[in-house]
Amino acid sequence: MRQFLVPILVIMASGSAAAQQEAPAPVPCSGEAYHAFDFWVGTWDVYDGSGNKVGENTILPEEGGCVLVERWTSTSGTTGQSYNFLEPDSGKWRQVWVSKGSVIDYAGGLSPEGSMKLEGRILYHASGQSAPFTGEWTPNEDGSVTQHFEQYNAATDTWDPWFTGKYVRKAPE
User: Fold this and answer.
1) What are the residues whose beta carbons fall under 8 Å from the beta carbon of 160, sequence distance 6 or more?
2) CA 27 centroid distance within chain
3) pLDDT for the residue 127
4) Where is the signal peptide (predicted)?
5) 3-state SS track over the chain
6) Per-residue pLDDT of the chain (173 residues; tens, 9 = 90+)
7) What is the CATH number of domain 33-169?
8) Cα dihedral sign, 117-88-65-30
9) What is the pTM of this model?
């Protein structure tokens, strides 16, 4: 029996050594495109155009960097969350925002100027109405990020400003 066991152990050991020599599997979501929105990652105070604080926002990478999760709280206590991810098949960034007031689903990518531009639709829970919607996040030289949203107004055939905010990174505690 012992004379059969030794060759089997040698075969098993050489098989596992061969498996160890194979190239490691690529790390999911590690390519450069998956980090195009990293300038928005962080913990932020958010201010309106007049300099009034309107809320706080935290954007963190999760699932090994495959998704950026946003958690928003306004100064009045309203909240919302979004999932931001690169769609591997289209190469586009997509955000799905959900709050008690609305759902926004849009996609896009980096502009030549370096801002993230997304286009899609907003749906309001209470009325059931929806409209075309755009969002743009622009990194600023001082490390802040400007966020600008517009909603299409079919009655006037114009794009109306919906929200513009300046994200200022919170100091580490």
Assistant:
1) 150, 151, 152, 153
2) 18
3) 96
4) 1-19
5) CHHHHHHHHHHHHHHHHHHHHCCCCCCCCCCHHHHCCHHHCEEEEEECCCCCEEEEEEEEEEHHHCEEEEEEEECCCCEEEEEEEECCCCCCEEEEEEECCEEEEEEEEECCCCCEEEEEEEEECCCCCEEEEEEEEEECCCCCEEEEEEEEECCCCEEEEEEEEEEEECCCC
6) 555 444 444 444 445 555 557 877 778 898 999 999 999 999 999 999 999 999 999 999 999 999 999 999 999 999 999 999 999 999 999 999 999 999 999 999 999 999 999 999 999 999 999 999 999 999 999 999 999 999 999 999 999 999 999 999 998 77
7) 2.40.128.20
8) negative
9) 0.84
- How many residues comprise the chain? 173
Q: Take residue 16 and report the two structure tokens written for it.
A: 């596992």
CA 25 to chain centre: 24
What does the domain layout of the chain look like in residue ranges?
33-169
